[in-house]
Amino acid sequence: MPTYKIKKDNECILTIAEKHKFKKWEKIYDHPKNEFLKTTHRKDPMCLKKGDEIYIPPKEQKKEACQIYKINKYVVPVLKSYFSIQLRDHRDQILAGVNYKLEIENKEFTGQSTQEGVVEEEISLKDEFGYLTIWPFKDFPEKEIRWRVKLGHLDPVNTTTGQQGRLNNLGSQVGFIDNEKGPVTDQAIKKFQQKNNLTVSGEANPDTQEKLTNPFE
Q1: For residue 172, which phi and psi values (nearest 5 degrees)?
Q2: Would you list the domain boundaries of the chain?
Q3: Within a 10 A sphere around the Cβ of 166, how many other Cβ atoms?
Q4: I want to staple 162 with a disulfide (CB 3.0 to 4.6 A). Which of 3, 27, 155, 174 is the partner?
Q5: Cβ(111)–Cβ(119) under 8 Å?
Q6: pTM, two decimal places
Q7: Contact of 157 with 209, CB cutoff 8 Å
Q8: Contact 21, 4 (CB under 8 A)
Q9: Which H or E element spans position 131?
């Protein structure tokens, strides 16, 4: 198969594997011809960017033994995708046991966040947008917070758009994600660095990128 060029903002290794009928995305990502993409360019296979190119290897034919005159059972792996988010307040305190409603396409999920503040639901690889509503105020149970969520649209952390998206998600607002590293983005990076005890430079150096990727580790 030829090299595949990513055309949409929300494509990742899972959607590419499904598109090319692979049951395991690792068969693509771990191929030697994708070594540069894997080790240098895009270390997180779930965060790829429009314009990236990835080699699609030829599919291997698999043979399985079976018994004649009997029913043979085979288990085929299925690619799964999840919406997963951790809820925290403006003081970075975990929001555990918070009621939520997740609306994606024509599906609705309801429940409570875990003790770690996590909301997680299995979704379709084809889903792109949704709405998450939470009720975090115990003294005001009717008051809600609602977000429109873009599924799979977070760019890699070594890109300006990827940094802007993460800064917005983590409370260091840059506003509109415009791929321009101007004064607003510089100030947001400085605010994030100061908050996380990093060297304050306004530049998204490797330490800052690591913290943007794993903010609570």
Answers
A1: -100, 85
A2: 3-55, 81-150, 160-213
A3: 21
A4: 155
A5: yes
A6: 0.79
A7: yes
A8: no
A9: strand 129-135
Question: What's the gap between Cα 151 and its chain centre?
Answer: 7
H-type alpha helices, the chain? 13-19, 26-29, 35-36, 160-169, 183-195, 206-213
Residue type at 69? Y
Helix (H) or strand (E) holding 121: strand 118-123
**CB 142 within 8 Å of CB 95:** no
Q: What is the pLDDT of residue 217?
A: 59
* Stretch (H or E) spanning 192: helix 183-195
CATH 2.40.30 describes domain 81-150 = no
Q: Please, are residues 94 and 116 in contact by the beta-carbon 8 Å criterion?
A: yes
Tell me the two tokens of residue 123. 């979704």
| Residue given tokens 């909301």 in the structure block | 119
